[in-house]
Write a structure and sequence with these properties.
The complex is a heterodimer of chains A (102) and B (135). Chain A is of the alpha/beta class and 102 residues long. Classes of the chains: A alpha/beta (102), B alpha/beta (135).
Chain lengths: 102, 135
């Protein structure tokens, strides 16, 4: 049994990503969407925490939202996997439930 | 004849996730017609508005980041960006677009509109205004 968590707020303006990472279980997936994609930035105040969690939880970023915000290449953490809209749907079907961290 | 006032538009939101950033830019462009002394402040997530390489093809929203480069033509030439906000987000000045204006008081020399300031300097910029509009 596993959960897909989505985060759609910037980690620098709300505690959503922080709280998500503090509550998700090993084997879960976290998908960063909309302004949530800033959580995948390299060299930020959040980077270390996301990288550490990436060992137990698979972390994804929605690529159209990352592209829109200029988060490409070395701006994105290597631990984070990019998915498109079809990949988003697959993640929803793969996990038992989806929890949105608004 | 009204006197010139100092206007500051404060940008603290990332682009696209909410409508604030685009609305702020529209208000700045409209306000430019009134020939006031205009400055823009970018701090907290507002610094994300000025980053290079934005491509919104995949999300069906207009990429308004190139519009910042037109501000110079409207005599909006002071874009204050807070250094600490950049650093907290893993960004440097190199991650921002180059935004230039032609200085009419200096033989139309091209100069950068973006001025990097510390948090303390940003506080001084804010305290120096007649009108502050927040987005």
């Amino acid at each position: 049994m596993s959960t897909l968590h989505t985060v759609n707020k910037s980690p620098f303006s709300t505690q959503s990503l922080q709280s998500c990472l503090n509550h998700c279980k090993d084997g879960d997936a976290v998908l960063m969407i909309e302004d949530g994609v800033y959580g995948a930035l390299t060299n930020s105040n959040m980077s270390k925490q996301v990288q550490t969690k990436a060992g137990n939880v698979t972390i994804y970023v929605l690529s159209p939202d990352a592209d829109a915000r200029g988060l490409i290449g070395d701006k994105l953490l290597g631990e984070v996997i990019a998915v498109d809209y079809a990949g988003f749907v697959k993640l929803v079907t793969k996990h038992d439930r989806t929890q949105n961290w608004l | 004849m009204s006197e010139t006032k100092k206007f500051l538009y404060v940008n603290r939101k990332a682009p696209y996730g909410t409508i604030y950033a685009l609305e702020a830019l529209e208000v700045v462009l409209i306000g430019a017609a009134f020939e006031q002394d205009v400055s823009l402040a970018f701090l907290d997530d507002g610094v994300f508005q000025l980053t290079k390489g934005q491509n919104t093809n995949g999300i069906g929203i207009k990429n308004f980041s190139p519009t910042f480069r037109a501000l110079g033509d409207f005599e909006v030439t002071k874009l204050f960006v807070e250094k600490e906000s950049l650093e907290e987000r893993g960004l440097t000045a190199d991650d921002l677009q180059e935004i230039m204006y032609e200085d009419e008081d200096d033989d139309w020399e091209e100069k950068p509109s973006i001025k990097l300031v510390s948090r303390a300097e940003m506080a001084d910029v804010m305290a120096d205004q007649d009108v502050v509009l927040s987005f």
